[in-house]
Design goal:
Structural class: alpha/beta
CATH topology of the largest domain: Cobalt-precorrin-4 Transmethylase, domain 1
Distance between the termini: 55 Å
CATH architecture of the largest domain: 3-Layer(aba) Sandwich
Mean pLDDT: 96
CATH class of the largest domain: Alpha Beta
Shape: flat
Number of strands: 12
Number of domains: 3
Helix content: 25-40%
Number of helices: 11
Low-confidence stretches: none
Strand order of the largest sheet: 10-9-11-1-12
Radius of gyration: 21 Å
Order of helices and strands: EHEHEEHEHEHEHEHHEHEEHEH
Strand content: 15-25%
Amino acid sequence: MNIDKVILAKPRGFCAGVEMAIESVERALDQHGAPLYVFHEIVHNQHVVEGLKKRGVIFVNSIDEVPAGANVIFSAHGVAPAIWQAARAKKLKWLIDATCPLVDKVHREVRKFAAQGYWIVLVGHRDHDEIVGTSGEAPGRTLIVENVAQAESLSVPDPDKVVVLTQTTLSVDDARDIVQVLKRRFPQMITPAKEDICYATQNRQDAVKQLAREVDLVFVIGSKNSENSNQLVKVARSFGKPAYLIDDYRGVQTEWLHGISSVGITSGASVPDHLVQEAVEFFKRQGARVSELGTLHENIHFALPEEISAAEM
């Protein structure tokens, strides 16, 4: 291994929604103690999840797993109304909603357009927690499209009354290609006034495009079930560069680095920066010089859930 140069992408790592969700869990633990139940992983990162488990957080995939009178937090990915109803029926002590506000925006759009009689075409991965929750707002009027081929073959009961919405963590380029097909096939289709793909997803993908032009190989630090992390790998590979998704520096395989002199590193929106710094130290020990690429500074913060804030007054 002879890595001369390591370049860090900027921006990278935690977004405002993830910071809010994780802080919500930590403060709920401080306020109410363990056990604390979280519906789905609070964010899709193995290190974050395992760290919270050690503090007494129990992650569940069904409200049936939660005992009556427990404290529960909904993850950043949002949940369907049916989950809300099931949770309220449990007579829980505390029910805290840590849904990312940008995801909640899409939920509100689904409700609004469904009430107006529109068919909602939801672009995203049907098994992803976010899409499951969003489509649950109007399951009888929502059609999920995952790729261009499905967009080409989609059948809508009323082609003149269609709106398209998207998962917040998609590849910006993939989403654009799918929406262009849908616009051609359904000329009357409405698109939201503001793009659904979140600012952090857009910014991290733009930063990786810049990074991939400057290095021989890209490492994306993130977990396998993190949609936005997987999309960063895909974006880097679209520039003809080898790119790998790793949970941390221990995932680096020596054979990947044969013939490589410069490495780029970024991380998904649910990844704590200490994992990036550990990777930096790993390459520094091999003699690599480290620099950063990108000047964009994100200064967005989301308020904590009302249940958390009110308990601290």
